[in-house]
């Protein structure tokens, strides 16, 4: 798998269930939210903008994805404070590795460059070095409908925060209609009412 494959496989709306553990004050928080992922190709204007902000050669970029985190109670409540644009710059000699250019970092709110690699089993590892800490995230698909993510933020004195997420793909309106039609067809064939 490469990053383009990963973004395309991640396209759509996901229910994100996460638990965050703060090591410094031994507190956990749990929450649900929606995660929307929209891949794009190298012709998207965001590619040039993000590459310029991080002084990366535009010719290295092959596309990327937009991410939005939103309330799962108010769908499509898009807030740019909870959004990010990520551009993929794979290594030419090994497209399973490369750089992710992010317009706004997760830990520090400024453009940031991460390294990534895919293991043989498809697990993606992203490492982001900020000025005062390092973020490490691993993500993988359990099935096409379920993703897992674990991450940690490490400061000089050790790990400060860990996060565990399970993400479930949300079917769109057309998929729900198709499932209903299939179910109705099965019920009609068995003589049951739909």
Keywords:
194 residues, alpha+beta, Lipocalin, 3 helices, 10 strands, 18% helix
Entry summary:
The chain is of the alpha+beta class and 194 residues long.
Q: How would the blueprint of this fold be written?
A:
Blueprint (H helix, E strand, L loop, with lengths): L2 H8 L1 E11 L4 E15 L3 H9 L9 E8 L12 E8 L6 E6 L9 E7 L5 E6 L3 E11 L2 E10 L2 E13 L2 H18 L4
Antiparallel strand pairs: 1-2, 1-10, 2-3, 3-4, 4-5, 5-6, 6-7, 7-8, 8-9, 9-10
CATH architecture group name: Beta Barrel
Mean pLDDT: 88
Strand order of the largest sheet: 1-2-3-4-5-6-7-8-9-10
Total E-strand runs: 10
- How would you characterize the largest beta sheet? 10 strands, antiparallel, barrel
Please identify the structural class as seen in this structure: alpha+beta
Which regions have little confidence, pLDDT < 50, spanning 5+ residues? none
Query: Mind telling me the CATH superfamily name?
Result: Calycin beta-barrel core domain
Number of domains: 1
Q: Based on CA inertia axes, which overall geometry fits?
A: globular
By CATH reckoning, the class would read Mainly Beta
Counting DSSP H or I runs of 4 or more residues, the number of helices is 3
Strand-residue proportion:
over 45%
Give the SSE order as H and E letters: HEEHEEEEEEEEH
| Terminus-to-terminus distance | 41 Å
Rg, Cα atoms, Å: 19 Å
Q: Can you give the helix content as a percent range? A: 10-25%
According to CATH, what is the topology? Answer: Lipocalin
Describe this structure in words.
The chain has 194 residues and is an alpha+beta fold. The protein has one domain (3-190): Lipocalin (Beta Barrel), CATH 2.40.128. Helices cover 18% and strands 49% of the residues. It contains 3 helices and 10 strands, in the order H-E-E-H-E-E-E-E-E-E-E-E-H. It has helices at residues 3-10, 45-53, 173-190, and strands spanning 12-22, 27-41, 63-70, 83-90, 97-102, 112-118, 124-129, 133-143, 146-155, 158-170. A 10-stranded antiparallel barrel has the order 1-2-3-4-5-6-7-8-9-10. A hairpin with a 4-residue loop joins strand 1 and strand 2 (27-41). The N and C termini lie far apart (41 Å).
């Amino acid at each position: 798998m490469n990053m383009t494959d990963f973004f395309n496989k991640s396209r759509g709306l996901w229910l994100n269930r996460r638990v965050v553990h703060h090591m410094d004050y031994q507190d956990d928080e749990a929450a649900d939210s929606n995660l929307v992922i929209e891949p794009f190709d190298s012709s998207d204007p965001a590619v040039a903008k993000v590459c310029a902000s991080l002084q990366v050669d535009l010719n290295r970029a092959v596309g990327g994805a937009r991410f939005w985190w939103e309330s799962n109670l108010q769908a499509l409540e898009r807030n740019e404070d909870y959004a990010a644009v990520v551009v993929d710059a794979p290594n030419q000699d090994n497209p399973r590795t490369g750089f992710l250019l992010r317009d706004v970092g997760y830990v520090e709110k400024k453009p940031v460059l991460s390294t990534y690699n895919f293991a043989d089993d498809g697990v993606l590892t992203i490492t982001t070095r900020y000025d005062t800490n390092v973020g490490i995230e691993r993500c993988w698909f359990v099935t096409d409908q379920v993703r897992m993510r674990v991450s940690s933020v490490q400061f000089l004195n050790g790990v400060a925060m860990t996060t565990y997420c399970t993400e479930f793909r949300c079917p769109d309106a057309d998929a729900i209609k198709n499932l209903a039609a299939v179910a109705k067809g099965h019920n009609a064939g068995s003589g049951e009412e739909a």
